[in-house]
Amino acid sequence: MVERVLVAMDGSELSKRALRYALDAHRDADVTVLHVVGEPSGMMGAATGIALADDSEERVRELSEDVFEQAGEIASEHGVAVGVESEVGSPASRIVERAEEFDVVVIGTHSGSLADRLLVGNVAKSVFQNSPVPVTVVR
């Protein structure tokens, strides 16, 4: 029986679909939404501000607010509450690291452009290949 579900969300339509799927498929489970903010680097845009912020934890929370608001609205539509957490790092690595605390991971997949796949990588594929628990990929 699935008791704890980790849903990776980035604010995309497919990640919202993943949360809806998790809430429908695992009605009695505790669901946690994880938003991973990319590691600070010259190429990561808004995430670079984390390293420069006076309070980096607060900055990570600010970068996650929209995703958490979306998750709350979806959970409310289902009449439940979800836990929300944010982390900094490589999304695939952080999701895989956290996966061992859960019974299943639910993640949306992007079939983005070649440029998207080359620059960002395929997070869902990496999570699927490396997760210590079952992964449901929602499209």
Automatic annotation (TrEMBL):
Pfam families: Usp
InterPro entries (UniProt xref): Rossmann-like_a/b/a_fold (IPR014729), Universal_stress_UspA (IPR006015), UspA (IPR006016)
Ranges where the UspA domain occurs: 1-139
Classification via Gene3D superfamilies: HUPs (3.40.50.620)
Similarity-based family: Belongs to the universal stress protein A family.
Matching PANTHER family: STRESS RESPONSE PROTEIN NHAX, UNIVERSAL STRESS PROTEIN UP12
Protein name: Universal stress protein
Species, as recorded: Halorubrum yunnanense
